[in-house]
Specification:
The protein is of the alpha+beta class. It has 5 helices and 5 strands. It has one domain.
Length: 179
């Protein structure tokens, strides 16, 4: 009995002595502040990066890459998607420009398919929402109303011929083909 008690005590002592402080890199991560904007941009990028290649697995686009960044100069969230074009007989993707326009439409549909966080909101707002981040229902509703007007979607399709570029604000029906 005494040997067992001594073994338990020795085990607890060794375990407490073995616990070390986090490395400087981990300590920096623990102390770094993360904004809800950074959090939401990261979640939106990760979700689209995972979903878009699945949608296009049998289509004319491959090597799909998603990036997003906030631009304080014009107060916009810029969502950029680039892809490699392979010729296709599909009507939606018959040439790089048509594929560009179609991808913008697909992205808008993917973002709209999220569960909503409040009234009159675009459902992709869920990326920027974290339970408990605010206790102010008004602030949450204001974010849901304003954020959709700040999202700009740009697509660049690389092809053997001239690359296609197009852009659209999330709420706009029109898509601009860029040169």
């Amino acid at each position: 009995m005494l040997n067992r008690l001594m073994a338990v005590f020795l085990g607890l002592f060794a375990a407490s002595w073995a616990v070390a402080d986090p490395s400087p890199e981990i300590q920096w991560l623990m102390n770094d502040k993360l904004s809800m904007l950074d959090y939401g941009l990261n979640r939106m990028q990760a979700a689209l990066q995972q979903e878009l290649p699945t949608i296009y697995r049998n289509g004319s686009l491959s090597n799909i890459d998603v990036s997003d960044v906030y631009s304080p100069d014009d107060n916009k969230i810029n969502l950029t998607i680039s892809a490699l074009y392979a010729p296709s007989d599909r009507a939606d993707d018959r040439d790089p420009t048509t594929a560009c326009l179609h991808l913008i439409d697909i992205v808008k549909k993917q973002l709209a398919a999220r569960p909503t966080t409040g009234t009159n909101s675009s459902s992709w707002i869920v990326f920027f929402h974290h339970v408990g981040w605010t206790t102010d229902k008004k602030a949450d509703d204001n974010l849901a109303k304003v954020l959709p007007s700040l999202l700009r979607i740009s697509v660049k399709i690389d092809a053997n011929s001239e690359p296609a570029k197009c852009a659209s604000m999330y709420l706009d029906k029109n898509v601009q083909v860029l040169k």
